[in-house]
Amino acid sequence: MQTASYENQTQSTAAYQAEPANGAGWIIYASIMLVIVGTLNVFQGLLLIAEDEIYVTGPTETVVVIGDATTWGWVILILGTLEVLAGLGVVTRNQLARWFGIFVASVALLAQFPVFFGAYPLWSFTVVVLCALVIYGLAVYGSRNDSWA
Q: Which residue has the higher pLDDT, 108 or 10?
């Protein structure tokens, strides 16, 4: 009688100590980063909407480019909202959300380039690097065959 209960206890303990699938950390990282980068993009979009004129001077300070960033701010705001939704979907292990996350992170990465040379270059560079890592994590480790944590 005591042997049977010991075997059951050992089997249940072994189930809790199972190793996570290869790349499970990348998927969790990608979902968290999608939410964080999406939030950063929402704030950046709001900043661009609020400060709708951008003044950029050239190296000799004789060239001045004045642009209206309100439209671009709305684009980045909407992309940020979609990134947050995709990150929440990836947490639920939804394959459609995974592919949507790759798409939205790719578009958000490309959307940062006009801003990268404008008002907030360091912020934009940070978002570009984080988007690239999100794309890597979702593309490499999020396949249907992976049973991640």
A: 108
Give 32's contacts (C-beta < 8 A, 6+ positions apart).
Answer: 87
120: three-class secondary structure by DSSP? coil
Task: Output the six-digit token pair for 104.
Answer: 């939205």
pLDDT tens column, 41-95: 898 888 878 876 655 556 666 555 556 678 888 888 999 999 999 999 998 888 8
Residue 94 lies in a domain: yes
Q: How many domains does the chain have?
A: 1
Domain interval for residue 112: 24-141
Query: Confidence band (pLDDT; 50, 70, 90) for 11?
Result: low
Whole-prediction pTM value?
0.69
**Distance between CA atoms of 68 and 76, rounded to whole angstroms?**
14
* Within a domain: 120: yes
* Residue 42 domain-assigned (yes or no): yes
The span from the CA of 110 to the CA of 98, in Å, is 19
Any idea of the CA torsion for 78, 38, 95, 134, to the nearest 10 degrees?
Answer: 130
